[in-house]
Amino acid sequence: MRAVLHKDRVKVRIVRSDRKGRPEGRVAEIVERSAQPIIGRLLQESGVWLVAPEDKRYGQDVLIPKGATSVAKPGQVVVVELVEPPALFGQPVGRIKEVLGEVDDPGMEIEIAVRKYSVPHEFSESCVALARTLPEKVRPQDRVDRVDLTDIPLVTIDGEDARDFDDAVYCEPVSKGRGKAAVKGWRLLVAIADVSHYVQTGSAIDVDAYDRATSVYFPRRVIPMLPEKLSNGLCSLNPEVERLCMVCDMLISQEGAVEAYQFYPALMWSHARFTYTEVAAILSNTRGPEASKRKARVDDLLHLHGVFQALLKARQKRGAVDFETTETQIVCDDNGRIEKIVPRTRNVAHRMIEEAMLAANVCSAEFISQGKHPGLFRVHEGPTPEKKEILRNYLKATGIGLSISDDPSPGEFQAIALATKDRPDAQQIHSMLLRSMQQAIYTPINSGHFGLAFDAYTHFTSPIRRYPDLLVHRVIKAILAKSKYQLPALPTPGEAHAKLARRLEKGQAFKSTQSPLPSKSNAEGMAWQAAGLHCSANERRADEASRDVEAWLKCKYMREHLGEEYGGVVTSATSFGLFVTLDAMYVEGLVHITELGGEYFRFDEMRQELRGERTGTRYSIGTRVRIQVSRVDLDGRKIDFRLVHDNDALLAKPEHFESLSARDKAAQKSEMRSRSSSKSVRSSGFPEKSKRTSVAKKRR
């Protein structure tokens, strides 16, 4: 491993298996060196300049020749470009490409994250120049061949801190038939910003948008997919200005079934900008102070709530999964430091808009399928066989009395969620249900959406911040015009195209179990597959960058609370310890297995718990504990806790270790050794502790 770095592409020869049957290999060939720059802190040791990588997956420091330090000073965060790769007997050598500043500078965590994950954060000159030529408002020629909806009281409903508005909604009651035979229902309009009118395929703005694929959201900062003139101006459905939009016009029955729908380009005028909090207050009290300020729109909101209740009936009928999970929001001060971490409450207004967007997305997927036009679907498949088995064992061990079948439906998951919603460990059970599912992806092969229980689903409602939605708009317009949308041929095939080519070479199946492998001659199929891979990968990249920044901020926050005690809940049990989330702060940290007390704890995978062999003490998901903040590693994004015991009963006595049989002692020492040398990493970024002496060795 000395001659390679993180993200190098290599060929490996398997040479043996370890005592647990895991294959061990040797790097046989370095196929491709990663061109990604390295971010780290500049250090000077004994006259030698080094950069210690901020990302601990780079296992070696980078040597910097004296003339390659630029204007950087010791201790500053810098970006390094490799000049010489590492060798078996030599460290990598690099030069400083960019100086980011001091580690405690406001916003430094974001500057590090965008470079660490290669998030494009500066628009190209050609993109900026093209954005300048765009108009400030809707022009007369833009109104041609559009339905005029300016008299329809469409409104936007978003969060308090929203800056761009993708969607506007309007609902009114309708009746089919006459007299007693009349059937009541709802007409629901979902108007989405018409980004595709201004962002032409293959233009400089389009190339930059495809490269980003999504907007990236950090506390206090957003890196948008589109230039600000579009995202916050021309394409944002701001109140009381004309805007171009694509409309999904639906007729919905009282049972929540979409009986008819149509798509068309339109011109709209947003009659109001609401927040979720404001709408929830109006719906809870239509004669209250919030309602009195918006008298003209109260009936429209009540109609929206009516169609929401109808759509909710349909959701429950088809058995869509609806978990109760707690999302958090980091509130920062002007210097970028955390003031507090608060739970993000989800009220009836959130759910009302969510159901309206889901309905429009389903109609979009059906429209593309019926039009027999290639496009990107949002596919979410059910759990893998391995995850099904783990979940079954967990449900059995917790005594819920319900399980899942070999071919589970979303309704089975929802039934378990409903049956356990009043249990003290409900959130942990729902978390396990969620973890058992696969991640959703973008693909041109429609395999349905398991979690939402839809046969076909896509993303139509956020073209300002998601590139797949922009592609869906273009496809819908092509179908309406009875033409065909052609993906542009990119000048350089990106990582997604290279990944696709490698899969074709090896003849491997795609993520989706129903995805046929496209022929090399099928250029169109390959292009759509590559676009799906690219958008899915960049969605993951954005999530990882956001989590990295949040982890940094939480570590800085917890450094001020070292030594303090808090109550918390075990949110995950592993072979190397417990992950505990604090009640008051919603911060997660690791209680390493060596901090649990003076006895040997064994991990029970079925019950997802650690159990002490001498006392029988159990720590499982949902167990309440009291901890002390013991260590914070900012560079490693790690927070370590230690358990605070109410009495000494849980502490092991020295004679316990003496009473162990020789075989047990050997097994315990071997297990401790394997744990201390392991480098396994959990998805949240907390590595297993290394080089720590076991309690047994300390006592001996």
Spell out the blueprint of helices and strands.
Blueprint: E1 9-17, E2 23-32, E3 38-45, E4 48-53, E5 62-64, E6 77-84, E7 93-101, H1 108-116, H2 125-132, E8 147-148, E9 155-158, E10 167-176, E11 183-193, H3 195-198, H4 204-212, E12 216-218, E13 221-223, H5 228-234, E14 242-253, E15 258-269, E16 272-275, H6 276-284, H7 289-293, H8 298-318, E17 327-332, E18 338-344, H9 348-370, E19 377-379, H10 385-397, H11 410-419, H12 426-435, E20 441-443, H13 467-480, H14 495-506, H15 523-559, E21 565-574, E22 577-582, E23 588-592, E24 601-604, E25 609-612, E26 618-620, E27 624-633, E28 638-643, H16 654-658, H17 662-677, H18 695-699
Parallel strand pairs: 8-15, 9-16, 23-28
Antiparallel strand pairs: 1-2, 3-4, 3-6, 4-5, 6-7, 10-11, 11-14, 12-13, 14-15, 17-18, 19-20, 21-22, 21-27, 22-23, 24-25, 25-26, 27-28
Helix pairs in contact: 1-15, 2-4, 8-9, 10-12, 14-15
Task: Describe what this molecule looks like in 3D.
With 700 residues, this protein is an alpha+beta fold. The chain folds into 4 domains: 9-103, OB fold (Dihydrolipoamide Acetyltransferase, E2P); 143-363, no CATH class; 377-537, no CATH class; 561-699, Beta Barrel (OB fold (Dihydrolipoamide Acetyltransferase, E2P)). Helices cover 31% and strands 26% of the residues. The strands form 9 sheets. A 5-stranded antiparallel β-sheet has the order 5-4-3-6-7, with helices on one face. Helix 2 (125-132) crosses helix 4, helix 8 crosses helix 9 and helix 10 runs antiparallel to helix 12 (426-435). The longest helix is centred in the last third of the chain and has 37 residues, at 523-559. The protein starts with 8 loop residues before the first strand and ends with a helix.
